[in-house]
Amino acid sequence: MIAQKISFGTDGFRGVISDSFNYENVRRIAQGFSDWLAHKGFKNSELKVFIGYDRRFLSDKFAKEFATVLINNDINCVVSTTPVPTPMVSYLTTKDYLFGVVITASHNNYSYNGVKIKYQGRSAYPQMTAEIELYIEKNVKSHISKNPKKPIETADKRKEYAGYLIKRFNIKNLLSNIKGKVVFDLMYGSAGDVFDMVFEGCKNVIAINKEHDPLFGDYGAPEPVEKRMTRLKEEVKKNKAVCGFALDGDGDRFALVDNNGNYMTPAQVAPMILNYLTDKKNMKGRVVQAVSLGYLTNRIAREKNMLFEFTPVGFKYIADRIIGGDTIFGAEESGGYCWKGNIPDRDGLVTSLLFIEMMANYKKNVSDIYKQIESSYGSSNFIREDISTLKVTSSKYSYAMKVKSRLPKTILNKNIKEIVTIDGIRVILENDWWFLIRPSGTEPLLRIYVETDTEKHSKELMKFAKDISII
């Protein structure tokens, strides 16, 4: 039998449960991870790994299977007693645990599950996962007993993580300074397992879809994007709330609905965060964001004489810059945000609490905060479309060069200012309008992102990008 190739994508390995995601492949990943740790010289006596899991089908069983392999390799590990959000495991790797493992498929459809590896408060960096993949490939079968040679240690670390959040934000005081309710859509995800600990006694907080449902209700996939925000919008309007937050299946991605029930795109959320950090927290330094995110953050950085940098898509690249020391803020298009003073990983609850703090300090609701951004830096109309292709694009860079060779001198009567080819091809026009064409790399798909100042202009630029994308 030919073994399934295990590849870590933008954040871990994922596959359909009982197909590519099965007990044997989980054992192979765990054994490859164990072999890599041994090769790197980590002493088993110094190693401690925390294993968490989300609310998906069999996640707790897969977590124990992973732990069994580690135990039989003489690696100390602890398995969570309950489902937990991924950021909690990231946090624990800055405390008593050197590494963390999370059994989760994040925002993917309920039929998927996956494995994330955490280190020093963030996702394992690309070189690390590439090396682990090589060790996994050596293990067509793990040949490790399915029975642990000693009992699996378990622990409930949720209070420790909740305490970290409460210590960082004076939550009750902040909420008392907000005139109205705040609605959380937990999308049936594992953030629901710590929610009550964080917001205990907070009467103006409403939680929806907090219950455990491995099918994720009507969502199917717990991804906080606009098409799944219908109920959150309704709840915000019904309760006359100041805003609504949505967190994905493992609690690291964040979405925002304003007090009028309008979904705010990540290209609108990111500049609100950055402006607050520089305005109220006096932060100054480098700003980094995925090449698929918008231009308002760049405009803020320019005005405030801060360095600005694009990264490939994947929060692990942003985490690298945060750890580097001079970066104060990082953001990605899929709803991940991080800033100086946090663990270097995205965290939906931390981002939610920052917006609560923002509203309390500004004494404004979300729509008024964004109006000030628009007044100072311009408007943003951001859209994304995925289009199918006949085959998987084998080289993103070669594809980008082919598209580049076909570009006219002007697009929509605007000159081209800059072309970025670090992850597909991003074409930036003289007025900051842009489009990005990004091949999937693993699926026969092109992902196309566009941002201009109006819906009309964005649709026109999207048409141009789609036409030129077909090679």
Strand content: 15-25%
> How much is the average pLDDT?
94
Number of strands: 22
**What are the segments in which pLDDT stays under 50 over at least 5 consecutive residues?**
none
Could you say which structural class the secondary elements and strand pairing correspond to? alpha/beta
- State the shape: globular
Number of helices: 15
Approximate helicity band: 25-40%
**Head-to-tail CA distance between termini:** 37 Å
What kind of sheet is the major sheet?
A: 7 strands, mixed
**What's the Cα radius of gyration?**
22 Å
Protein topology:
Blueprint: E1 13-16, H1 23-39, E2 49-53, H2 59-72, E3 77-80, H3 86-92, E4 99-103, E5 112-119, E6 122-123, H4 126-137, E7 153-155, H5 158-168, H6 171-176, E8 182-185, H7 192-198, E9 205-208, H8 230-238, E10 243-247, E11 254-257, E12 263-264, H9 266-279, E13 286-290, H10 296-303, E14 308-311, H11 315-324, E15 327-332, E16 336-339, H12 348-362, H13 366-377, E17 381-388, H14 396-406, E18 410-411, E19 414-420, E20 425-429, E21 434-439, E22 445-452, H15 455-469
Parallel strand pairs: 2-3, 2-4, 3-7, 8-9, 8-10, 13-14, 13-15
Antiparallel strand pairs: 1-5, 4-5, 5-6, 10-11, 11-12, 15-16, 17-22, 18-19, 19-20, 20-21, 21-22
Helix pairs in contact: 1-2, 1-4, 5-7
